[in-house]
User: What shape does this take?
Amino acid sequence: MHRLKLLLPFAVLLSPGLILLGVAQDQLTIDASKQPAPPARGRGPFPGSISPGHSARLRVRLELRIPNGPLQPDGTTLVDFVITNIGDQTISLPSSIKENDGPSSDVLTLWFTSDAVKDAYFKDTASGRPVKIEIVPTSAELYSRSNDANSFLLVAPNQSVKVHASSRVQLQPGTHTATAHAELLHLVVRNSSISSEIVGAANSETVRTILSTANPR
Assistant: This one.
């Protein structure tokens, strides 16, 4: 009986399920679900690659989580972008959801492409015909400032950051696929003008989701 009591704690420690359950939890979370959409950036961000991966200067794994179930009454849904540092060095990622707290030095844009996205149109005043809007919508923009330590996160190797966001764009009910994209920009100020350079980009694996009509309130 005494030997059984001694062996039980070792069996619990060596249980793979219990060990993996603790390691797999997201360690950092940013809630951008109520962040207002900024003005469209030209024609929007580039759609990104259809294959998963990352650029050399942004060694992260990007994951998209879209829950199955009913859409919001406005046709949107809540999504999670999970960013995991797969490099061997700590990286700095923007974490502020407020753009107007001072001049930004880096901007991380998160969005997804999907066949669930409803096409948007505007009416051409000359012809009176509807014209499809080609701008790619975004789900979240995170900002960092070099003089504000609270505006960025230091993410250690194998550590993850979950960004909780709204799709912002209306989606269609049905079975659909979606792919997440991330783009990190560095802003450079020269002679009172601001230019940007791409630090890196990442794309997730394609996921499948089943969306249903919004629940009436």
